[in-house]
Amino acid sequence: MKKYNIAVIKGDGIGPEIVDEAIKVLNAVGKKCNIIFNYKEYLMGGCAYDATGDPLPKDTVEGAIQSDAVLFGSIGGYKWDNLPRDKKPETGLLRLRSELGVFANLRPVKIYDELTEASTLKKEVVEGVDLMVVRELTGGIYFGKPREKLKDKAYNTMVYSKDEITRIARIAFEIAMKRKKRVCSVDKANVLEVSQLWRETTEEVAKDYPQVELSHMYVDNASMQLIRDPKQFDVILTGNIFGDILSDEASMISGSIGLLPSASIGGKIGVYEPIHGSAPDIAGQGIANPIATIASAAMLLRYSLDEIEAADMIANAISKTLHQGYRTSDMAKYGAKKVCSTSEMGTIIAGSI
User: Cβ of 120: how many Cβ atoms within 10 Å?
Assistant: First the structure.
């Protein structure tokens, strides 16, 4: 029997509710696949600041590093909006990513057949969409130096090294090898020298993956193509600021932000979380959609633990549950046969394992 140590960071708002359901599903798949998950909870975010004065306590970092993976819920809320920047809940997450050295953010966008009408795009446009955005997470304009804000002007610098581009490109190509073997690298090489280096380096990496078809697209065109014809994409590879924008755009194709997971990998330990926020306005009401967090647990199995069969079981259980007409309130008007609470949805998916 295999054993894994999972660092659990429930966080703020709806975080505890949705993480509990992901754990419920992990335990169900563990029984089926002869896996034991040992969970240890840690604080991060607003709750950590309230308890310790620090949005990322030292023992949380140490616990994460000693684990096999981190399952995370959400952080933040109105209560902490006026804190200094270094004390804000979001700073805790940025620091955790830095401490763990994760540099690749993975955001899959998959359209469930039962929920095509939830998208604001036409059914024929979104039906069958299954793509992955691979975003570089620790470089680019968000981290470039020098940076300064003066009285009448401000400036930031976009910086990427060849090594940074190479390592994120390799992750994209490795993922593409397990999918449809297509990578579209998104840049602005017609204007930016950084993007010219990005394109040259990506083409060099592509030589090691002759089975994968590499294409290039300018970011302005890519943002348009995601709406016009999202099915043309398999793996989208891009830098930090472009990926920040494109991944949010891509996430809305599905029609519900409560469905989409994410992973931050490439460093010591992977961090797995839903793409949505802490939704303090609905916290404690038992109506939050846990599917994105449950799908994040499936990504944890796939990318950190290499438990592919278990990951597929969770993905299939989510699909089966939606096919049977179970919905949380955010999806109630799209073919719901029964509207479920947060806990009920987790129990049904766990039961489908």
Answer: 9
The residue from 178, 248, 268, 338 that is catalytic is 248
Residues of the chain with pLDDT > 90, as a percent, come to 90
Average pLDDT over residues 103-120: 92
Strands (E) across the chain are located at 2-11, 35-41, 69-74, 104-110, 130-136, 148-149, 154-155, 182-187, 213-218, 235-238, 261-265, 271-274, 326-327, 338-339
- Does residue 197 surpass a pLDDT of 90? yes
From 12, 188, 209, 303, active-site residue: 188
Residue 223 has pLDDT above 80, yes or no: yes
Q: Cα-Cα-Cα-Cα dihedral of 146, 148, 150, 154, to 10°? A: 90
Which pLDDT score is estimated for 305? 97
Catalytic residue among 50, 113, 163, 220: 220
Active-site residue, from 39, 142, 180, 231: 142
3-state secondary structure 119-179: CCCCHHHHCCCEEEEEEECCCHHHCCCCCEECCCCEECCCCCCHHHHHHHHHHHHHHHHCC
Q: pLDDT, tens digit, for every residue of 229-254?
A: 999 999 999 999 999 999 989 988 98
> What domains lie within the chain, and their CATH numbers?
1-112+255-353 (3.40.718.10), 120-128+136-239 (3.40.50)
Token couple for 65: 């590093």
The answer to whether residue 142 is catalytic is: yes
Q: What is the band of 257 on the pLDDT scale with cuts at 50, 70, 90?
A: confident
Q: Is 123 a catalytic residue?
A: no
pTM above 0.90? yes
Query: How many other C-beta atoms can be found within 10 angstroms of the C-beta atom of residue 77?
Result: 22
Query: Which among 12, 234, 244, 330 is annotated as catalytic?
Result: 244
Instruction: Determine whether 54 is an active site residue.
Output: no
pLDDT, position 251: 85
The CA-atom distances, in angstroms, between 347 and each of 64, 73, 342 are 27, 18, 9
